[in-house]
Amino acid sequence: MKGSVVALGAWRGRAAVARLVDGRLEDLLVDPGGDAPLPGAIFRAVADRPMKGQGGVTVKLPGGARGFLRQTRGLRPGQALLVQVSTHAEPGKAVPVSTRLIFKSRFAIVTPGAPGVNVSRRVRDAALRDRLAGAVAGLVPEGAGLILRSAAAEAGEDAVIADAAAMCELARDVTAEAAGGPELLLDGPDAHLLAWRDWPEPELVAEGAGAFAEHEVEERIEAMLRPRVDLSGGAYAFVEPTRALVAVDVNTGGDTSPAAGLKANLALVRDLPRQLRCRGLGGQVTVDFAPFAKRERRQLETALGAAFRADPIETALAGWTPLGHFELQRKRERAPLAEG
Questions:
Q1: Are 32 and 335 contacting, i.e. CB atoms less than 8 angstroms apart?
Q2: In 3-state terms, what secondary structure has residue 283?
Q3: TM spans, by residue (predicted)?
Q4: CA-CA distance, 117 to 322, in Å (whole number)?
Q5: 282 and 87 in contact (C-beta within 8 Å)?
């Protein structure tokens, strides 16, 4: 099917949402299994003990769970504080948390402790920026800030104001609950809420029992569980997560021409953000490119930069290793698909 489709359904008993563009799976959100809190959840926690050598402190969460906060200055054992889950916890490790809270909706982000009203730089119209900023300036809680997201440019002013007001009220309510023992104050967004909040408006929303079947979503998800990725020109790659990192290996296939390596590598680079996104993979990513001339490194670097600039998940391009691999560091915003 041509155009963009968002299909809502379930996969292996968990809520799931797929975004398809011209029949290709472009993004996938699946609720993680288990009891680990979702990124974005806000807790009242209690500071425990510094972790010497690790640059942080453990905090007590409800139910005996523990978080890890990369901050020790100004904290004392037993102190109550508000923390937000920043990324998915790796199995067997403490939940990564931060004291920098954000309250995010489709049009607005409220930032307690970071004052100021700003509008996304993607909103180019200066008059519109000024009008939107002026419309919400009086809503912001004292000591907090508000950022209007790019989606606000396409919405009606009343809708933007209502959305921003709701986020400001939520921020006031949650931040007023700083005193006391460990408690969950706000759940993190599930897959369906994340899709509504962060994805572009689709041309079609498909929901109900037959939505996934109609758009062959389950088959596309199963393909993402397989390590092999077929690329153009007969090339292929393997994307394989390990406990330490995600390993990506690129092969030219049957092409033995002098340009085969570069063509295969560029094909992988163009598809790599989508592959990592849909597989829910983050952390360290190491790419073993197919053999290519060293003078072509700059071309690959430029292609990598362009590919990941368009990706919504924060990714740092670390560069080349002495052995000729390329390393990336990617935020763990999602649970690995294979863990479900």
A1: yes
A2: strand
A3: none
A4: 45
A5: yes
Q: How many CB atoms lie within 10 A of CB 321?
A: 12
Phi, psi of 127 (to 5 degrees): -65, -40
Q: Do 245 and 299 reside in the same domain of the chain? A: yes
The DSSP secondary-structure symbol of 62 reads: G
Query: Would you give the distance in Å from CA 12 to the centre of its chain?
Result: 21
From first to last of its 340 residues, the chain has per-residue pLDDT tens of 789 999 999 999 999 999 999 999 999 999 987 788 999 999 999 999 888 777 799 999 999 999 999 877 788 899 999 999 999 888 788 999 999 999 999 999 999 999 999 999 999 999 999 999 999 999 999 999 999 999 999 999 999 999 999 999 999 999 999 999 999 999 999 999 999 999 999 999 999 989 999 999 999 999 999 999 999 989 999 999 998 999 999 999 988 898 999 999 999 999 999 999 999 999 999 999 999 999 999 999 999 999 999 999 999 999 999 999 999 999 999 999 988 6
Q: 64 and 94 in contact (C-beta within 8 Å)? A: no
Q: Do residues 241 and 335 share a domain?
A: yes
Q: Cα(110)–Cα(121) distance, rounded to whole angstroms?
A: 17
Residue ending a domain, choose from 156, 186, 217: 217
Asked if residues 171 and 141 have their Cβ atoms less than 8 Å apart, the reply is yes
235 and 334 belong to one structural domain: yes
Residue 230, number of CB atoms within 10 A of its CB: 12
Looking at the structure, do residues 325 and 231 belong to the same domain, yes or no?
yes
Residues 245, 331 within the same domain: yes
Of 174, 207, 236, the position where a domain reaches its end is: 174
- SS3 category, 154: helix
Cα distances (angstroms) measured from residue 105 to each of 40, 72, 158, 168, 198: 11, 30, 15, 11, 8
User: 97-113 as b/e, with b when 16 or more CB fall inside 10 Å?
Assistant: bebebbbbbbbbbbbbe
Compute φ and ψ for 239, nearest 5 degrees: -115, 110
Residues 267 and 288 in one domain: yes
Query: 12: domain range?
Result: 4-31+199-217
Q: H/E element holding 161? A: helix 157-175
Contacts of 290 (CB under 8 A, 6+ apart): 235, 250, 251, 252, 260, 261, 264, 265
